[in-house]
């Protein structure tokens, strides 16, 4: 059984008599522990723990974060004593009979204790159960101080929906300054035993993510570039290894070592910065048993991107947010930490990040320069702000040289992908239908959103150079596709490869904070390979 703080027991009981689980908030730092043996409950817990976990930046002020604990309990919801009884309701759950009474059993039971006030108040509040709707009522008649109705919309239920439900519950609890909340679904008849387990986890996951605020830069992506330099990112990665030294080893390469490996593409990007590059390679090997498959997770690690001589300027350039340009590496290291806790068998995983900054100086690469990558291919730099793919080029070559069978890379690579898919969906590119299927199935468990885009080979014409093997960027149309085709030039044909462009979902503009996108799906994908 996996535990967060005290415990999480994922189970369901009859909806007519019991709540989904009990949530309590206190003011201590949470603790995380896993059993050594991986099992299904641990798998379901993995990505929330990774995203909520402290990666240990030392410069920010340490502020105590709240502890959240969950327990499943058999109770009559009308008898539960606490701050808020939160009920997830679909539009169908609000159906009334000829006497304007709720037909749903749980809502009917609650309403009968309140002499019809719940039905009356929900009508007055225009609450129809749509996603995003919520109402919290302080009314007498129950042992709970408040009753909250939170909309779940219409079926079918999804992981993302229940995560959102968990976050909405926490938002209501924060607003009411509540310390305890009982959460119940008004109806769960359509859920199988396995989906009930997944549902409970998704709600718990959403609650955890909704609870934490950015007291300490949260995760790595929120850390400003003057704190999170390439050297500090390497230090953070090394902490994962020291925490799980039974299954992890680390190799951190400096500029001279990268030069010996002929990583001219990566070093060209790093050349302008006063902060030297650090090429980071963590390796996970299972504590026992044979290795059946070798995987690599490659993350873009630009701790700051000025754009170089093609400097980011003008409205919408978001140069002040370019600390999040290492979001791919944060996802990779978040996954590493989770897998260090879970210790899956049968799988070897390499975590690879070419960390550096893209700055401007007399030593920096210029538009028109020609770089030579470690596989010998030459690149004419026609835009210094298309730098992420240059670092990934050498990282992908290095990953292939580790003898892996499959590679997934993650990068905040193109604004074109944000234009195409918006802020919530990542683009997926791969010549392997099988690998796409694996990752999309993992995303169904994680609740993160992906959409496959084509690798249209004819677009490679825009990347051809008259003086080198290729340009580093083509025209504006199909920019994210051209970028993926560029990366493909540095992957061995024998290795199955998938590219994730996460430029949209890495950051939440409304909340002005990082999302932790990618960790969940990476962990689920690795676990899927471990169990196959």
Structure, described:
The chain has 532 residues and is α/β, with parallel strands linked by helices. It contains 14 helices and 21 strands. It has helices at 40-52, 105-113, 117-124, 159-175, 193-211, 230-243, 255-260, 264-270, 327-342, 388-400, 415-421, 433-446, 479-488, 519-531, and strands spanning 3-4, 21-26, 32-33, 67-71, 84-89, 134-137, 146-151, 180-185, 248-253, 278-284, 293-305, 347-358, 370-372, 378-380, 406-411, 426-429, 450-452, 470-471, 496-501, 507-508, 513-514. It has an 8-stranded mixed sheet, sandwiched between helices. Strands 4-2-8-5-7-6 form a 6-stranded mixed sheet, with helices on both faces. The longest helix is centred in the middle third of the chain and has 19 residues, at 193-211. It is elongated, with a radius of gyration of 25 Å. The relative contact order is 0.12. The model is unreliable at 1-61 and 214-218 (pLDDT under 50). GO terms for molecular function: manganese ion binding; metalloaminopeptidase activity. Homohexamer (dimer of homotrimers).
Please provide a brief summary of the model.
The protein has 532 residues and is α/β, with parallel strands linked by helices. It has helices at residues 40-52, 105-113, 117-124, 159-175, 193-211, 230-243, 255-260, 264-270, 327-342, 388-400, 415-421, 433-446, 479-488, 519-531; strands at residues 3-4, 21-26, 32-33, 67-71, 84-89, 134-137, 146-151, 180-185, 248-253, 278-284, 293-305, 347-358, 370-372, 378-380, 406-411, 426-429, 450-452, 470-471, 496-501, 507-508, 513-514. Helix 1 (40-52) runs antiparallel to helix 14 and helix 9 crosses helix 14 (519-531).
């Amino acid at each position: 059984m996996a535990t967060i703080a005290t415990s999480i027991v994922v189970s369901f009981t009859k909806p007519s008599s019991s709540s989904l689980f009990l949530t309590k908030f206190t003011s201590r730092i949470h603790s995380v522990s896993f059993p050594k043996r991986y099992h299904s409950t641990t798998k379901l817990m993995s990505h929330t723990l990774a995203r909520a976990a402290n990666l240990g930046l030392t410069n920010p002020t340490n502020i105590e974060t709240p502890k959240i604990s969950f327990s499943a309990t058999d109770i009559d919801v009308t008898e539960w004593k606490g701050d808020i009884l939160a009920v997830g309701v679909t539009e169908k759950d609000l159906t009334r009979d000829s006497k304007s009474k709720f037909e749903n059993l749980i809502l009917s039971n609650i309403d009968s204790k309140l002499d019809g006030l719940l039905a009356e108040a929900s009508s007055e509040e225009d609450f129809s159960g749509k996603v995003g709707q919520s109402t919290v009522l302080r009314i007498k008649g129950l042992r709970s101080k408040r009753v909250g109705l939170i909309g779940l919309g219409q079926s079918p239920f999804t992981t993302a929906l229940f995560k959102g439900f968990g976050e909405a519950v926490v938002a209501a609890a924060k607003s009411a300054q509540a310390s305890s909340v009982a959460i119940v679904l008004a109806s769960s008849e359509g859920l199988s035993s396995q989906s009930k387990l997944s549902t409970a986890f998704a709600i718990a996951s959403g609650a955890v993510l909704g609870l934490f605020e950015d007291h300490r830069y949260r995760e790595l992506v929120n850390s400003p570039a003057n704190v999170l330099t390439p050297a500090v990112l390497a230090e953070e990665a090394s902490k994962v290894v020291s925490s799980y030294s039974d299954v992890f080893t680390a190799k951190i390469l400096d500029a001279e070592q990268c030069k010996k490996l002929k990583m001219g593409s990566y070093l060209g990007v790093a050349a302008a910065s006063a902060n030297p590059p650090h090429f980071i390679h963590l390796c996970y090997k299972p504590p026992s048993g044979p290795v059946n498959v070798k995987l690599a997770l490659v993350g873009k690690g630009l701790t700051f991107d000025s754009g170089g001589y093609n400097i980011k300027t003008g409205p919408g350039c978001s140069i002040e947010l370019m600390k999040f340009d290492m979001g791919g590496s944060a996802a990779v290291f978040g996954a590493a930490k989770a897998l260090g806790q879970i210790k899956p068998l049968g799988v070897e995983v390499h975590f690879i990040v070419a960390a550096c900054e893209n700055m401007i100086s007399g030593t920096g690469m210029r538009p028109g320069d020609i770089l030579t990558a470690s596989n010998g291919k030459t690149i004419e730099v026609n835009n210094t702000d298309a730098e992420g793919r240059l670092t990934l080029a050498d990282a992908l070559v290095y990953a292939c040289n580790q003898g892996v069978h499959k590679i997934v890379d993650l990068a905040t690579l193109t604004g074109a992908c944000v234009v195409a898919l918006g802020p919530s969906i990542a683009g997926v590119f791969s010549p392997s239908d099988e690998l796409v299927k694996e990752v999309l199935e993992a995303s169904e468990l994680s609740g993160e959103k992906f959409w496959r885009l084509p690798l249209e080979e004819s677009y490679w014409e825009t990347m051809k150079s008259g003086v080198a093997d290729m340009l580093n960027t083509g025209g504006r149309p199909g920019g994210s596709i051209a970028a993926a085709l560029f990366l493909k030039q540095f992957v061995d044909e024998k290795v199955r490869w998938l590219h994730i462009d996460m430029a949209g979902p890495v950051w939440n503009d409304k909340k002005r904070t990082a999302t932790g996108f990618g960790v969940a799906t990476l962990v689920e994908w690795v676990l899927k390979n471990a169990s196959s």
